[in-house]
Amino acid sequence: MTENQIFNLLKQVKDGELELDQAVGQLKQLPFADLGYANIDHHREIRTGYPEVIFCPGKSNDQIRGIVAHLLTKGTNIMASRAESFVFDAIKDLHPQMEYYPEARTIFIQQHEITKSKSRVLVVSGGTSDIPVAEEAVVTAEKLGCTVEKLYDVGVAGIHRLLANLHRLDTVQVIIAVAGMEGALPSVLGGLTDKPVIAVPTSIGYGANFGGLAALLAMLNSCASGISVVNIDNGFGAGFMAATIIRQIDLNSK
Question: Are residues 128 and 240 in the same domain?
Answer without folding.
Answer: yes
